[in-house]
Amino acid sequence: MATEKGQKVVWFQAAGCTGCSISLMNSSYPDLVNLLLDELVPGKGITLLFHATLMGPTGRPALELLDRVPREAAGQYVLVVEGALPTGHENFGRVGEVPMAARAAELARKAIAVVAMGSCASYGGIPAGAPNPAGCIGMGELLRQEGIGVPVINVPGCPPHPRWFVETLVTVLARGLPAPEELDDAGRLRNVYSGLIHEHCPRRPDFDVARFAPYFGEQGCLYELGCRGPFTNAACPEHAWNGGVNWCIRAGHPCIGCTEPDFPDRFSPFFRKLSLEEELMTYRRQG
Amino acid sequence: MSRLVIDPITRIEGHLKVEIQVEDGAITEARCTGALYRGLEEILRGRHPLDAQRITTRICGVCPLAHSTAASLCLDDALGLSPPRGGQLLRNLIYGANYLHNHVLHFYHLALPDYLPAGALPGALSPGTDEDRRFSQQEANRLAGHYLEALAVRRKAQELVALFGGKMPHDMAIVPGGVTYRPTLGEVAAFRFRLKEIMGFIETSYIPDLLLLAERYHDYFGLGQVGKLLAYGCFPLEGERLFPAGVVLGGELVPFDPGEIREGFAHSWYSGDGPQPPWAEEAPPAPDKAGGYSWIKAPRYRGEPCEVGPAARAAVGLRAGTPEFRELAQDILREADVPPDALSSAMGRHLARGMETLFIARAMESWLSQLDLSAPVATEYRIPQEGRGQGLAEAPRGAVGHWIEIKGRVIAHYQVIAPTTWNASPRDEAGKPGPIEQALAGTPVSGDGVLEAGRIVRSFDPCLACAIQ
Ligand code: SF4
Ligand code: SF4
Fold this sequence. Notes:
Mean pLDDT of chain B: 97
Number of strands of chain B: 15
Largest sheet of chain B: 3 strands, antiparallel
CATH superfamily of chain B: Cytochrome-c3 Hydrogenase, chain B
Strand content of chain B: 15-25%
Shape of chain A: globular
Largest interface: A-B, 82 and 84 residues
CATH architecture of chain B: Orthogonal Bundle
Number of strands of chain A: 9
Low-confidence stretches of chain A: 283-287
Oligomer: heterodimer
Number of helices of chain A: 11
CATH topology of the largest domain in chain A: Rossmann fold
CATH class of the largest domain in chain A: Alpha Beta
Mean pLDDT of chain A: 93
Number of helices of chain B: 13
CATH topology of chain B: Cytochrome-c3 Hydrogenase, chain B
Low-confidence stretches of chain B: none
Number of domains of chain B: 1
Structural class of chain A: alpha/beta
Strand order of the largest sheet of chain B: 1-2-3
Distance between the termini of chain B: 35 Å
Structural class of chain B: alpha+beta
Helix content of chain A: 25-40%
Order of helices and strands of chain B: EEEHHHHHEEHEEEEEEEHHHEEEHHHH
Bound molecules: iron/sulfur cluster
């Protein structure tokens, strides 16, 4: 926020849990202070204009900042959205008394690009789980419905690993908006979401010889306990979480597929082994 | 008389609007509006009971452990499981680490900017006002330095959660019956050294900074009071709990009976007859309801709005807690030069949060030394055809309860009452305002009231994602 060359960023929270922000605050090298104050690629950093969890101003001065952005910084800012957009009724979610979905659309209309941070902003996520009581949708869907042509880059995960956001951010800062072929069919940068968990999983040797953990806390592949690693694109095995200290499968918990579209419904019940039929269907959907 | 809407209340979790009426230099009336409904309880209906473990964890990214803990206790109860000692110790260590992250984040990053001069923090982080700033330049610089340092401290606390809990936010390892992970000796060492560093920061920065704030803003011990306090207790270990349960009414401790909890929604956007007990609650959303002004429901204990959170835990702990807690709490109260009944106040809550941070970090050191890495960490589960469960715990911001009813091996009903449901609740059937509404009413203000209201509201560390789900 100090540098003049900073790319303006507006971070807008909708129907979420702040977990994506907390996850980003767990970033190290660059840490949050680096992200806010320093050059991230040669000559370029970011200037954060709005982030409700961290910003100093409250009430009217904060709201005025948000209201002014589309007018005064049109075409100059990247909009990061955290949380899904409730569309079932305009009273389901409001910020400054305006429905969240309307605010998000208004902010997106004048943005250079939208980064959908987390599975909720990308695809609806947990609040869009059946029966989707608040009619939650992701940013891509919202912009389609509103006829807004601004590009959307998804950074899914519940929450995403901070590294996936940082990779996406510095890619955009260094090279500009990604070409369509750089995004996969779920709208994620291919170089960030580059393979199935199952392909890089340290428990894979167990899977290959059908040595399955019979219960939580036991040795072996977690497939029988419901692991969705074979169907989930994420770099968890490579990056591990929280400074690399651990991650779901290492900690004996099956992957629940938190980076995939239609999470949670496609994978729920989480602790049930997929039937062969479901497996075949899932593979087909993967294309 | 002027009516003022403060929306959004920033530096809290989620979407809260507060409306105040100011007359003759004082807030006469306040209303809290929780502005987001997702309907997670509805989403749980009909799912496999264990899905509640992972889905409720995702209610909140700041305190996912509040829900993974309450859900695991609730499912333990419904499934008839008692986690082995090793599983209990690991759950407590993971949960304790969430407290350390939460309280450091709350003090430095959410609350402190309300007291720092405009220029102390860079860019958007700056509060942008110099109203009622009482620190010297030197003190402000030191505190701003600690603000930055605290970012790394809370990150380290999240690493503690991940070391034993898999990842953070949205920890994974806590499951009904225990935990999924038995850490290695090396990881126990990695945990211990991180905890030591965090402990160092708590002792040499957090507590002294807190006492300095308490000294400069001593008048805030007289603002934002509530008085009726409720704690469910938490950190169970073989039948004993680190924080006891209890209710403090009129300065007297009375035993807590969960059967006395009712949730009403007279002024909340839900239909149905209230107040209802959590196990049987039926309240479909009614976004157009006349007279409604919040998505937060109004939980009451024997019909009374109660404050939950660190002040309640400390008030109960001072009367029924361990000797270690009482000694520590009395020392800190003495240093801050306030009586115990000042805990339920804008500054008292910060003080209570600080004292329990130190207390929990010490308890974690002790739990860590009791870990037996060869002992089992989980018991097997079987989903019953029918069952009921109740899970009561303490989130960093207060009492949290989960209730489940299982029918035909799936969730027939799931109910969550979170701390901010209590604290930021609207008026109830009897017209009684919620605790934050009460805390704001009567506050003398110097300007338009936004400053005082912001400080008081943040002292509760509100979390709206939890309050409404
Ligand atoms: S634990 Fe999951 S991701 Fe790893 S090998 Fe087994 S099925 Fe694949
Ligand atoms: S392992 Fe699976 S559930 Fe865990 S964070 Fe990665 S994608 Fe999400």
